[in-house]
Amino acid sequence: MAEQEVNIPVADPNDPYAMPAAMPSSADNQTRSFEVDDFKVPTRKQEDWRYTPLERISEFFDVFEPSGETKVTVSNIDGTPVDASQVVRSVVERGEAPSGTVMKPNDRVSAVEWNSGGKSVVVSVSGELSQPVLVDVEGHGADLDSLHLVLQVADRTHGDIVVRHQGLARLAEGVEIVVGRDAHVSTTFVQEWDRASKHVGNQRIHVGEGSSLRHAVVTLGGDIVRLRMDQDFGGPQSELNMLGIYFAEAGQHLEHRTMVVHNFADCKSRVVYKGALDGKDAHSTWVGNALIQPTAPNTDSYELNRNLVLTPGPVADSEPNLEIENGNIIGAGHASSVGHFDDEELFYLQSRGITESDARKLVVRGFFADLIEQIGVPSIAEHLMNVIDRRLARGESADMQAVLEDK
After folding, report:
1. CA gap 77, 377 in Å, rounded
2. How far is CA 388 from the centre of its chain?
3. Who's near 42: CB < 8 A, 6+ residues apart?
4. Residue 302 half-sphere exposure, CB side, CA atoms within 13 Å?
5. Do 203 and 177 meet the contact criterion of CB atoms below 8 Å apart?
6. CA–CA gap between residue 275 and residue 32 (Å, rounded)
7. Whole-number Å distance between alpha carbons of 69 and 138
8. Looking at per-residue confidence, does 147 or 376 come out higher?
């Protein structure tokens, strides 16, 4: 019997994907399109939707007429008017630059968002910002609505942008973040929706050459919030830090998905998400994806997710994924964990004269403190700590009510 010849791939200098990748990455295989019909209706059999309670967001699967109930205002973080020479709010047609310039939609709900409305809100910033810019997104009703927001950061800009979601809404949201060259900025997205709100969001992020972006997401409200964030670099020597904080209460579903694509040399990324869960049927999902392409030597990448389960009953899904198509890297790794509240730690604090209520707050505050500090906006940090304390107090009240009902 003749021996079968073994075919070994040979590197082709004109095709960086020939080696070492023997097959395309999952990211390369994903459909990207502005057309809704190019995407199938989500099912739990699809990888990107297997953790999502689809029956609770099915209204976002087909194009709809937006209600226009979601309002967007722009000010400084202290409420004063912005400097019009540095911060400009404008409205353009969807598809008119800079709208629609950072990647195409990557799933059905983001394509539906794009096609369910005709305008995009653009916030352009430039220069040295003296204080953070606040973009307030406020919902005023439960009718279906669509919002497309573009944050355009000029070359060599330094500053902070905070996008705060609040009120009552059922919102399909698209966000494009365009960071120019040699800029150093932070964007913080806070979700403090009313309890009945639904928010399905898609963010597409482009970090320019030589720039750094600190991108933070804080999700503390709503019935269901599902956010997906896809990113790429526009040149070498760029840096991305993605921070995430979430606190899921009884019945809430909070889902965050990140996709970091290293497509240029000498770039660095860090993804750190932390979540707490408290109450029956509280559900969180974090899926972190990182792709290092053959065109990205000297990449330094790491992603981490930690979950703290405070009471029996919640479910935390945590899934890190790393694809490396380049052997010439500085480092790449990932880690995730789901752990229960440490009774021994609680007992130790109580043995030092601290009440159980205060001990719980100290432990959870310590769990989140480093990330909140890294957000770098003092007024937001203090506010978030206060919200977390109220969440813990509310959980304790619910536990006490359950005890009384059992008697």
Report:
1. 9
2. 19
3. 48, 49, 52, 54, 61, 107, 108, 109
4. 6
5. yes
6. 30
7. 8
8. 147
CA atoms within 13 A on the CB side of 195: 4
- Percent of the chain with pLDDT strictly greater than 90: 73
The token pair at 392 is 């813990």
The residue to which tokens 């290092």 are assigned = 292
| C-alpha–C-alpha distance, residues 63 and 66, integer Å | 9
**Distance in angstroms (rounded) separating the CA atoms of residues 369 and 372:** 5
State pLDDT tens for residues 316-342: 999 999 999 988 999 999 999 998 877
Segment 229-266, tens digit of pLDDT: 999 999 999 999 999 999 999 999 999 999 999 999 99
Instruction: Please determine, for residue 295, whether its predicted confidence score (pLDDT) is greater than 80.
Output: yes
The CA distance from 121 to 27, in Å, is 28
Q: How far is CA 331 from the centre of its chain?
A: 23
Residue with tokens 């969440």: 391
Cα–Cα dist 33/107, whole Å: 8
Type of residue found at 363? V
Residue 346 has pLDDT above 80, yes or no: no
Q: If you search the block for the tokens 């526009």, which residue do you land on?
A: 234
Q: Is 98 exposed, middle or buried (0-12, 13-18, 19+ CB in 10 A)?
A: middle
Angle at 64 between CA 62 and CA 65, to 5 degrees: 175
**Does an H or E element contain 274, and which?**
strand 268-278
Asked if pLDDT for residue 28 goes beyond 70, the answer is: no
Strand-pair partners of 215: 187, 242
Q: pTM for the whole thing?
A: 0.89
| CA nearest to 221, candidates 87, 384, 29 | 384
Residue 47 has what DSSP assignment?
G
pLDDT score of 26: 59
3-state secondary structure of 288: strand
How many whole angstroms separate alpha carbon 69 and alpha carbon 21? 48
Question: Nearest to residue 276, comparing CAs of 304, 244, 302?
Answer: 244
For residues 172 and 203, the answer to whether their CB atoms sit within 8 Å is no
C-alpha to C-alpha distances, 384 to 49, 71, 164, nearest whole angstrom: 29, 23, 12
Q: Which residue has the tokens 């009945």?
A: 196
Distances (CA, A) of 162 to 73, 187, 215, 275: 12, 6, 10, 20
Each residue's pLDDT tens digit, 157-212: 999 999 999 999 999 999 999 999 999 999 999 999 999 999 999 999 999 999 99
